[in-house]
């Protein structure tokens, strides 16, 4: 069964699962079994970062062979990359920050996107441009849950995917906030498990991560 592409009529990327796996792949051959393990564990949205030469091929492989996954591209920092990853099959875009040219390219791509912010001024600037869903990065270093809680009062229309320094112990605190849709993290795809191709372990970690929404509710 194919997962729906988020659009105005479908769930936001922020609402597909409580955790957005941030994946760094050195070998594109690992992309498909890794994606299948994450989906089986309850995490259908997968951010493949453009930090390795294998990233584009990994996105292409997941898009072509794991239709139940919603694969996106992370660390998108140029308009050229926007064109490359959407051509490869990326169904959403994530950037660590934004510029006017990058924002224009992401908007023109036709797929959902999460531009990165770390200050109130950046949030206001995006809201002014009609963008309401953003990546808060680097989350822990930029003020963590206290900062996001402070933004919720004056800027309640902004929603975030905090990423950076978040783990299973702190994720529920973020998920308890009214302006957080999901959190980004890589703890469910540890490098040693990927290197060992231990897909069963990754599926188990993904399943635990997928249950963190309930844990977040208890923090409220």
From TrEMBL:
Alphabetical list of CDD domains matching this protein: KDPG_aldolase
Catalysed reaction(s)? 2-dehydro-3-deoxy-6-phospho-D-gluconate = D-glyceraldehyde 3-phosphate + pyruvate
Q: What is its EC number?
A: 4.1.2.14
Q: Name one GO molecular function term.
A: (R,S)-4-hydroxy-2-oxoglutarate aldolase activity
Q: Which keywords appear in this protein's UniProt record, sorted alphabetically?
A: Carbohydrate metabolism, Lyase, Schiff base
Q: Does the keyword Transmembrane apply?
A: no
Broad EC category: lyase
Question: Which Pfam families does this entry report, sorted A to Z?
Answer: Aldolase (PF01081)
- InterPro entries assigned: Aldlse_KDPG_KHG, Aldolase_TIM, KDPG/KHG_AS_1, KDPG/KHG_AS_2
Q: In which pathway does it act?
A: Carbohydrate acid metabolism; 2-dehydro-3-deoxy-D-gluconate degradation; D-glyceraldehyde 3-phosphate and pyruvate from 2-dehydro-3-deoxy-D-gluconate: step 2/2
| Subunit record text | Homotrimer.
**Family affiliation:** Belongs to the KHG/KDPG aldolase family.
NCBIfam families in the cross-refs = eda, PRK05718.1
Protein name, per record: 2-dehydro-3-deoxy-phosphogluconate aldolase
